[in-house]
């Protein structure tokens, strides 16, 4: 059978596709070509079913009971209830505040009387002006004072020595204090005090009578 141009194109495209395929390792290629199903080992599949725990069973039962209770609930067993609306009365403070707001909102501005504003500018007294002027002049002199006009001065410290009389008086006072502090009271002699009551003479009595 002669080849057609279409079959020739298919063969050429298949050859080109085989060239583009990745190369397989020679060792792996030999293993794949020599593989036979009789080399596989028999394996047995074991199915494991995990039983639910006691808590899972109890939860499932509770869930089922809730669903059954909802599905089997009879609305005829419900009692009619009326909703009571409670209106809280306002406090005295709230009422007073509401009255003030109402008065402000309903206030008639046409009842107001027109007034003229008089601005009074009180002038300071003469004494205040004089004091302010003197203070201003004093500040101006202080700020415009030229320090270069000052002359350098040297402070001389004088240490005045005490006079001879001051030294003698100081020595006498120190000797007196030293004698008082070191005085021995045991050196004193015992004395007896005698009280004398002198009677007035005759001349003194006569003078007292004449007076």
Explained architecture:
By secondary structure, the chain is mainly α. It has helices at 5-20, 26-33, 54-71, 92-105, 126-143, 164-181, 202-210.
Helix content: 40-55%
Would you count the extended β strands for me? 0
Query: What order do the SSEs take from the amino end to the carboxyl end, as H and E?
Result: HHHHHHH
Quick check: average pLDDT?
A: 79
Compute the gyration radius: what is it?
A: 68 Å
Q: Tell me about the largest β-sheet.
A: none
Q: What's the quaternary structure here?
A: single chain
Strand content: under 5%
Write the layout of secondary structure elements.
Layout: H1 5-20, H2 26-33, H3 54-71, H4 92-105, H5 126-143, H6 164-181, H7 202-210
What keyword list fits this structure?
211 residues; mainly alpha; 7 helices
Write a short abstract of this structure.
This protein has 211 residues and is mainly alpha-helical. It contains 7 helices and no strands.
